[in-house]
Please model this.
Amino acid sequence: MERYRLFLTRLVFAVFALALTGGPAARITMSSSSSSSFVAAQQYEKPWQSCSTFFSPNMEGWAVYAARSFKEDELVELTPFFVPLDPFLTRLSVLDNIVFGFQRGNDAEVDPIDLNVVLLGNGGFYNHHPNPNLRYVQVIAREGDDVPHLVGFRATRDIVAGEQLYVSYVDDPDKTLEWFKERGIDTQKRTAESIEPNVLHLYMAKYCSKIYGGIGAPTWKDNILPILSSNHQERGGAGIILDPSSWMDLTRLAPFDAGLSDARAKVNIKKGTMIESSLGLVISRNFIRGTALGPIAFYWENLKYDHHQHLINLHDEGEIILQYQGPDTDWQSVDRFKGYTEMSVLPVSGSIGLVRRVGVGREESNCKLLIRPHKESLSKVGITLELIATHDIAAGDVLKLNILPSEFEEEYRLLHDEMEESGQPHHPGIFDSITEEEL
Model:
């Protein structure tokens, strides 16, 4: 029996990118979107180490671009991790601008539960387009203890390297402006529809993440593909252009799973190299404390002195706020800053949120986090996060960050329950603080 069903009555695909960039991408083509003759991935030994998509600043904002070509219906992104939350909790903060609708429970005797889901990866960063080249899909609903629930983004048509990747934020195109207006988002900022072939490799070299996160080839091959293929045969392929075996090239999946607290290096990384540059959400701890999202956030007390100083300076300079909206503000966004210790950083972009946090003295760390001001936008909710190698790191090695994990055990219990429900891969040691009796 299907235990999960995604619903698209309220599409909130990528507004965090827009909240940071100021609006949907204008459809401006810089050049022909033919593939570059220079293949930046030549440095990689295996396809799973290569770059498929990247998130980068462009013109007046940020956007996600294809680093290689994709066939129609191919999986462009398999979401590396997601956390469901109560809709009322997400509605009160800037989280309302990044979540997906999600419905749990398909039992005829029990009413389904409507939830909102925070995604890692690129899910919150695709810009809006009325004719998008991506669509959000439920790859598979969990069926049994060994099959994780998966969501992702599939191509609506063939895509060539250098094209910007888009989704549609609304079911009804006539409600697009209303959707942006409700969230106070400017619709005039521009990003390019494509990156010129002769500079694509430069963008890739700078912005392609060196982190591998999410499921790998064993789980896909042994647990996912058999069910997809069976369902495909039962439906006679109706509505599906590609056979499921063509959705994902197995060589582009790592030979291991790399879920929460178990993200790995894609390639050999030299000390001092930037592993990933992504965007973080500055949010009040009041909106994530006591939720399964808590262990993913960087609480004030777990951040370093230099992180504190950057956040203090940014707030004092008016660059960041702690966004709130609710019945008492007629759902208009306001700053509810009450103190620096209330500030938390939520790494909702890329895979930094999947990196294991070891602090000092537990396990030896091999990377550190830098916080940069986000100068590319007028947004006051986002900052740039950079993960930097502090040692030489070999491809396949687990990434270990020199920041202590959260110490709120009740949040780990909630996260543990969510991991059990969704079956997403994770490092079991993340729950070491919880005793067997508590579980």
Observations:
- Residues 1-42 have pLDDT under 50 and may be disordered.
- The radius of gyration is 21 Å.
